[in-house]
Amino acid sequence: MISKKLAINVLNEALSTGADYAEIFYEDSSSHTVVIENGKVETSSSNSMCGVGLRLLKENQCVYGYTNDLSKKGLFALANSLNKSFNGERLITVEKLEKIKSKNRNPILRSYNDVPVEEKIALVREGIDEIQSMNDPRIVRTIGVFGDTHRFVAVFNSKGKWFKRDTEFGRLLYQVIAADQNGFETGFEGPGAQQGIEYFKTEKVNPRKTARKAAENALLMLTADECPSGKMPVVVGNGWGGVLFHEACGHPLESSSIAKGLSCFSANKIGDVIASSVVSAVDDSTLPSHWGSIDIDDEGNLGTKRLLIKNGKLNDYMIDDLNGRRMGRNGNGACRRQNYRYIPTSRMSNTYICNGKHTPEEVIGATKLGLYAVSFGGGSVDPTTGEFNFGCSEAYIIRDGKVCEPVKGATLIGKGSEILKKIDMVANDLKLAQGMCGASSGSIRTNVGQPTLRISEVTVGGRGGELK
């Protein structure tokens, strides 16, 4: 790590031509990945990176650069290459740095650095063995992965503040491909958390259950009929179903979209009704040990629970300091980046629709004829309009309030702002699911989630004719 004395000198050099804010982001991280394919260890690799990113702001202007030369000469060279963007007199001088203290909600009992590679391989192999024990010739490919990362970050800024953050997280993934004469289908499961390897050996999350679930889903969808098309009620399952809200509504609520006028939920809509009254939504980076949680963001703002939608009304956004300037707001702990090579901006953490008053059985039971979308695969969304299309990786037809035959090839098509207002039932079975979210500041850990809920009408694309 660079010293506070050197950080002060670099900040002042960066500020010498008139920037009104400077920030040094230091990172030292390491990761390890094990990959087993069809029972054979294909990869056991380690990676590390260490470097500094420097950001300068003046009003609404921003310049950014990075280097892995951590010498005084290298850091001054970076500062001088950036401060040439401004042509003025010094506005700020940094005299000292005071540490920002944050609560560690994500402690690791046993560091991944202390876990032998053989233990990680054995963990993944348990799931592979479970799939092989099914002895189903339609399973043609199985991939098991365990990845862990240890990330140390220190940030120094011209507000005279500095902080450090030390995090570790792991993820276990299984991908299963099943095929027959009619084609192939893929099943996927990937639990992750800011917890040690013992988390993946529990009754709730373990290799055998995780791998079998992925395999069973691939086999089930292989036998499914094509999904019918048309407008129909859609019940969206809990957990991974939340990716629909994440993409179609979450991204448009980030200040990186709001401040530039690129969102369907503009800044002057605070207090407006944008969803059904049964909908409240949250982005909460304070959930202990969760995949998307952060104790303190990449600007030094403490992680918070942001109530985005309250009983259907737009309540708040996810805001970073730069876009907050453009909005007349302060950052609210939502600034994140993949690593020191990326400029930070507003991003989601653990984003979900809150529990409602119904049971999942009541939501499904109240649906005479429609689609039950359990989870989603690929898709796309335009944050400026909220228009989206998402393919379902697991779906079923609901008939007379009961979940019936599985269907494949279902695609939900719509607009986020319209879908929110058509949610008419929300259950009480909130669940979160782990994923990686890519945007301008790189790929970061995020949780998506929601309870089971019903959208009264959605356009469903499929090749199975009309729903009957």
Features:
PmbA/TldD fold; six-stranded mixed sheet
Outline the structure in words.
By secondary structure, the chain is an alpha+beta fold. It has two domains: 4-223, 2-Layer Sandwich (PmbA/TldD fold), CATH 3.30.2290.10; 226-461, no CATH class. It is 19% helix and 41% strand. Strands 1, 2, 3, 4, 5, 6, 7 and 8 form an eight-stranded mixed β-sheet that branches. Strand 18 and strand 19 form a beta hairpin. The longest helix is centred in the first third of the chain and has 17 residues, at 117-133.
The helix content, as a percent range, equals 10-25%
Distance separating the two termini: 65 Å
* % residues in beta strands: 35-45%
Largest pleated sheet: 8 strands, mixed
- Principal-axis shape equals globular
Summarize the structure.
This protein is an alpha+beta fold and 468 residues long. Helix content is 19%, strand content 41%.
Strand and helix map with partners:
Elements: H1 4-14, E1 21-37, E2 40-58, E3 61-67, H2 72-83, E4 98-99, H3 117-133, E5 139-157, E6 161-180, E7 183-189, E8 192-193, H4 207-222, E9 225-226, E10 230-236, H5 243-250, H6 255-258, E11 281-284, E12 305-310, E13 313-314, H7 321-327, E14 335-336, E15 345-346, E16 350-353, H8 360-365, E17 369-382, E18 387-399, E19 402-408, E20 411-415, H9 416-421, E21 423-426, E22 431-439, E23 442-450, E24 453-461
Helix pairs in contact: 1-2, 3-4
